[in-house]
Design brief:
By secondary structure, the protein is of the alpha/beta class. Helices cover 40% and strands 20% of the residues. Helix 1 crosses helix 7.
Length: 204
C-alpha cells in the first residue's frame, strides 16, 4: 500500500491533482480520504456556537481520529469514514465504508499539518498557487456552487482564508516531497508526479 498526502490552500487545485492521480491508476485501486470528513463532532454545542466555527484553523479537526483511521487502512482494516454537515456544523450519523486499497490519497488544506498523520504517508505533495489565483477560484466556485455573494467572499478571504493560509497552510510546504506550482494547470509537474507514483506503487 502507498499513502499519498496532498495539501495546499483553498482553490490551489488539489482536486484536479487528485483526479489526475486517479486517472493514472487502475480502476478500484485508489481510495480518497478527504480531510473535510474529519471536522470535530460539535453536536454537544448550541447551533449558534457551531456556526462560528473557523473551518480553516487546525483546532477544527479531529486529528486523533483522522490519523487512527489512516493507520487502520495501512494495517489492512476497513474504516467507517465520518461525514460532516456544513449546514448543522457537526458530524452526521451516517458513515462511509472504506476498504483498504493499493493507493490511499489523503487530501485537504492541512493534510501535511499533523506529524502523526505525515509519518503515515509515503509521498507528500503540496499543491501551490498564487494568492490571486486561489482567490479567483474560490470566488468562482462559491458563487456558482453555494450562491455566496461576492462581498461576503472577499470579507471571508481577508479575515479568515488569507490569515489562516499564511499561518497554518503555507508553512506545511516544508514537509512536502513534491511541490506542484500553479496547481492542476502544471501539466509537466503532474506528468512527473504520475510517473513517480506508477513507478513506486507496488502491484500496479
Amino acid at each position: 500500500m502507498t499513502i499519498i498526502g496532498i495539501g495546499g490552500g483553498t482553490g490551489s487545485g488539489k482536486t484536479t491533482v487528485v483526479r489526475k492521480i486517479i486517472e493514472t491508476l487502475p480502476d478500484n485501486s485508489v481510495a480518497v480520504i478527504p480531510q473535510d470528513s474529519y471536522y470535530n463532532d460539535q453536536s454537544n454545542l448550541p447551533l449558534e456556537v457551531r456556526k462560528r466555527t473557523n473551518f480553516d484553523h487546525p483546532d477544527a479537526f479531529d486529528w486523533e481520529l483522522f490519523a487512527h483511521q489512516i493507520e487502520e487502512l495501512r494495517q489492512g482494516r476497513a474504516i467507517e469514514q465520518p461525514t460532516y454537515s456544513y449546514i448543522t456544523c457537526t458530524r452526521l450519523d451516517e458513515t462511509i465504508h472504506v476498504e483498504p486499497k493499493e493507493v490511499i490519497v489523503v487530501e485537504g488544506i492541512m493534510a501535511l499539518y499533523d506529524k502523526t498523520l505525515r509519518d503515515l504517508m509515503d509521498l507528500k505533495i503540496f499543491v501551490d498557487a498564487g494568492a490571486d489565483e486561489r482567490l479567483l477560484r474560490v470566488i468562482q466556485r462559491d458563487i456558482a456552487e453555494r450562491g455566496h455573494p461576492l462581498e461576503m467572499l472577499i470579507d471571508k478571504y481577508r479575515n479568515v482564508l488569507k490569515p489562516m493560509h499564511d499561518e497554518f497552510i503555507e508553512p506545511t510546504k516544508q514537509f512536502a516531497d513534491i511541490i506542484i506550482p500553479n496547481g492542476g494547470n502544471n501539466e509537466k509537474a503532474i506528468a512527473m508526479m504520475q510517473m513517480y507514483i506508477k513507478a513506486n506503487v507496488h502491484g500496479i
